[in-house]
Amino acid sequence: MEGKLLTNSDDRDQGSTIDENEMNHIEEYIVSSIREIDELKSALKKEKELSKEIKIKIFLNYIELLDAFKRIFKNIEEKKKENELDKQTKIWIGNFRSIMNRVERILRESGVSVIETPDGKAVPGLHTVIETREVEGLSDDAILEEIESGYMWVEGIIRKSSVIVVKNSKF
Questions:
Q1: Which residues contact 126 (CB under 8 A, 6 or more apart)?
Q2: Is 3 left (phi over 0), alpha (psi -120 to 50) or beta?
Q3: Contact 116/151 with Cβ under 8 angstroms?
Q4: Distance CA 17, CA 5 (A)
Q5: Alpha carbon distance 85, 135 (integer Å)
Q6: Is 158 helix (H, G, I), strand (E, B) or coil?
Q7: What is the pLDDT of residues 113-171, one digit of tens each?
Q8: Which residues, 6 or more positions from 65, have their beta carbon under 8 angstroms from its beta carbon?
Q9: How far apart are CA 19 and CA 55, in angstroms?
Q10: Model confidence at 41, in pLDDT bands (50, 70, 90)?
Q11: How far apart are the C-alpha atoms of 57 and 65, rounded to whole Å?
């Protein structure tokens, strides 16, 4: 650069100036830096979206594992009613329960929680109604049975609960 940047009024008085070429170079540098910042912001946004999608896929895999354990334990409970389980089977059940508890803890520590419905009614956006039944004495949308648990995360719904609800005919 031919001249130096003006730093105070004394420099201007002594005849130091920034020529037009230097000014253009500085302007190009600033514009280029702004473009680069915008590109980096855009790339960061895409990476965050990709990271969120990957996390949700991982959470869904853990949730499917929990579903499998729940089905196993439901079948075991039915078998328990029929007859006593042997010692080795009881040990395996304990091991499976420990694994299931660990998966639940991993999800909980990652901010994933089961969708709760304290009022017992299906909520659009949280529940998928897979079946309706008429039941006298209960109001419409009362949950009769949860077929599959729903899960939410700080970023939103991971999976809606699948439920059977009351739907009484109106005449």
A1: 115, 117, 150, 152, 157, 160, 161
A2: beta
A3: no
A4: 7
A5: 37
A6: strand
A7: 999 998 999 999 999 999 999 999 999 999 999 999 999 999 899 999 999 999 987 75
A8: 103
A9: 54
A10: very high
A11: 12
